[in-house]
Amino acid sequence: MANPASVTFLSLAAGALGYCLYFDYQRRHNVEFRKSIYHKKRQAEKAARLQNEASKVEKTILLKKKLTESLIAHPLTTENKEQSFIEEVTAAEKLASLPDREIDAAIHFYRALSVYPEPTAILEIYQKSVPAEIYELIMLLTAIYPPANITSLLSESNGSILETE
Q1: pTM, whole model, 2 decimals?
Q2: Phi and psi of 2, rounded to 5°?
């Protein structure tokens, strides 16, 4: 006598194989079935794209809120920049090693960037040494609220471009 588990397994396997054969036949021979598959695929892609855009907007709003809170709670100091840079980078590296603390780490890296005298050099270092998702957040933070040293750098470069033309 056959084992009930093996009979059940064989029945499920035969049903799955039958459905695969039916699906393949419909895909090859039924134009409407192919169209419905195509439309479902397009709808799924569109839904994923819209969800991705919505999550980016939510992430930007969250970053802006956390950055504002951080700058209000601990304003950037103009004196003793070297010490504050070291403190911010140290805190950022500690947070970067912890799971689910990428935003806080990015804010500390951003704060370190804000006090560093050469922002382009530190951004290159960040790009090489910081994980990609945190670097992306740092760039988003600089786009949301550009630090004064980057703003002055951009205005100097725009002025030199205008003078040469």
Answers
A1: 0.65
A2: -75, 145
Residue at token pair 């002055």: 152
Which residue's structure tokens are 């290159």?
124
Q: What's the DSSP call for residue 75?
A: P
B/e letters for 62-94, b = 16+ CB within 10 Å, e = fewer, are ebeeebeebeeeeeeeeeebeebbeebbebbee
Confidence check: pLDDT of 162 > 60: no
What region, left, alpha or beta, does residue 65 occupy, with left being phi > 0 and alpha being psi -120 to 50 degrees? alpha
Domains in the chain: boundaries: 4-49, 74-164
CB atoms within 10 A of CB 33: 14
* Residue pLDDT, tens place only, 113-157: 888 888 888 889 999 999 999 999 999 998 888 877 665 555 555
Give the CA distances from residue 27 to residues 13, 24, 61, 76, in Å, rounded to whole numbers and listed in that order: 21, 5, 44, 62
